[in-house]
Amino acid sequence: MLFFRQFRRGRGFRLSFNRQLSLAYNLYEPVNIKPGHAPLIILHGLFGSKQNNRSISKALARDLKARVYALDLRNHGDSPHDAVHEYSAMADDVEEFIQEHELRVPSLIGHSMSVSSLPPISNSDPNLTSTRGAKVAMTVALRSPRLLGALVPVDNAPVDAILKSDFHNYVQGLRDIEVARVQKQAEADDILKHHEKALPIRQFLLTNLVRSTDCGHLHLRIPIKTLALSLDKLGDFPFKNPNEARYDGPTLVVRGTKSHYVPNDVLPLIGQFFPRFELRDIDSGHWVISERPEAFRQAVVEFLQEKE
After folding, report:
1. Contacts of 142 (CB under 8 A, 6+ apart)
2. DSSP-derived 3-state class of residue 243
3. What's the confidence (pLDDT) of residue 1?
């Protein structure tokens, strides 16, 4: 049995200058927490939210008998909006979250932030993350290594990458929906069809629509203009020189064998940034958590249990 609690922070646009934001989160808490077991934090990705990690959070909380925090990063889900949207600012928020909640050396899990298209999902339970989480997690580990007990980046590497043009199409489609002030999800989907043919991707993007309480039309809960302006920055990784930043804690790099985001030739660089890293290959594409949730759960549980 698990206890589940949801925490929302005040949402709305705020202009700031790299000021930490207080993040919304879901807490998954087993009935019998194992004494001394470090909590886990799971990060979603671009256009995603804490709901994307619902199923894997429940499973890890159950198996590890530890608290699991699924966060909404800035400008996503129920977390506040801000004009600054880059890895350093997102890492600031996560570090502040750890300190605010007095979490002792938590394990940090994040998936991607690279150049891929969005993943396949189901309407009922989108157990996935889209791009961004892994690079935020790696940034936190390299900036503040003493804050973390372990790191799990999923199918991504600490390298710069070129963001695919698909994301600009998604942004334009979401902007068109906002202007149209649609009343029904089907109307929004009809607009988005002009920008993306794949139904699963459209379904994922449309999870960002909520109904306005004052006039009844659907609107975006994410600041699409801010995210559009940040796209070109999100392909980069903040750290270039492993001699200047290193995380010596336990690190599990989970790689999809049918994906190309962690090629063999970047493994030496990963080893320089994260000298204690272990590699776990899973027979999947880029979207490891949604494609092979049981294999991912098993890999993480075994890794963290060995570190106790």
Report:
1. 158, 238, 239, 245, 246, 247, 273
2. coil
3. 63
**Among positive and negative, which fits the CA dihedral 80, 73, 102, 20?**
negative
Cα 139 to Cα 98: distance, rounded to the nearest angstrom? 14
Which helix H or strand E contains 278, and what residues bound it?
strand 277-282
User: Which amino acid, one-letter code, is at 258?
Assistant: K
AA identity, residue 217: H
165-183 residue pLDDT tens: 788 899 999 999 999 999 9
Contact 168, 176 (CB under 8 A): no
Q: Label residue 179 exposed, middle or buried (CB < 10 Å: 0-12, 13-18, 19+).
A: exposed
Q: Is pLDDT larger for residue 112 or for residue 264?
A: 264
Alpha-carbon radius of gyration of the chain: 18
Catalytic residue among 57, 112, 116, 230: 112
Residue pair 152/136 in contact by the 8 Å Cβ criterion: no
- For the question of whether the overall pTM of this predicted structure is more than 0.85, the answer is yes
pLDDT at res. 166: 81
C-alpha distances in Å from residue 293, one per residue of 129, 142, 269, 288, 290: 12, 27, 27, 7, 6
Cβ-based neighbour number of residue 299 at 10 Å = 20
Active site residue 107: no
Give the pLDDT confidence of 92-104 residue by residue, as tens digits.
Answer: 999 999 999 999 9
Residue 81 falls in the annotated catalytic set: no
From the list 76, 85, 111, 286, the catalytic residue is 286
30-61 per-position pLDDT tens digit: 988 888 789 999 999 889 899 989 999 999 99
The pLDDT of residue 8 is above 70: no
Joined tokens for residue 193 = 């069809």
